[in-house]
Amino acid sequence: MSKRALIAPILGLAALALTAAGAQASAGKKEEGKGDVGQYVDLQPVGLPIVVNRQLVNYVFVYVRINLTSSANVSRLREKEPFFRDALVRASHRTPFTVPTDLGAVDVAKLTAALTRDAAAIAGPGQIRSVVVTSQAPRRRARTPHA
Hints:
The protein contains 4 helices and 6 strands, in the order H-E-E-E-H-H-E-E-H-E. The chain starts with a helix and ends in a 9-residue tail after the last strand. With 147 residues, the chain is α+β, with helices and mostly antiparallel strands. The protein has helices spanning 3-36, 74-78, 81-94, 108-123; strands spanning 40-42, 46-52, 55-68, 98-99, 102-106, 128-138. The radius of gyration is 26 Å and the shape is globular.
């Protein structure tokens, strides 16, 4: 028998062993990544109106995260993200979250209270832990109007 005939099966087994070890390592990383998935729903950015004296003066784009309880079904609630966004837009047009002293920001307390109430109605009881505004970006810088 030639040397190649003897070495080929050994090299094949070594390659197989390395492939199996790599697959196990990547599977371990996937499981670790799975644990990193949080119990939250991030909403797509939403432009909310800033209204003063019944006139639109600006838009503020907000990034919102809805934190869920540990018993919540995350995948089912992430599918309802468009409903959460719709509730936020409707609430902001009903009573704008305007800060009278800053036309480049929204009133975070009003926004979180309104969206927490609406999100609980959409998701069901015991599903929503909190609502957090992660960032705000005004469409343009606006001066505070004089009274």
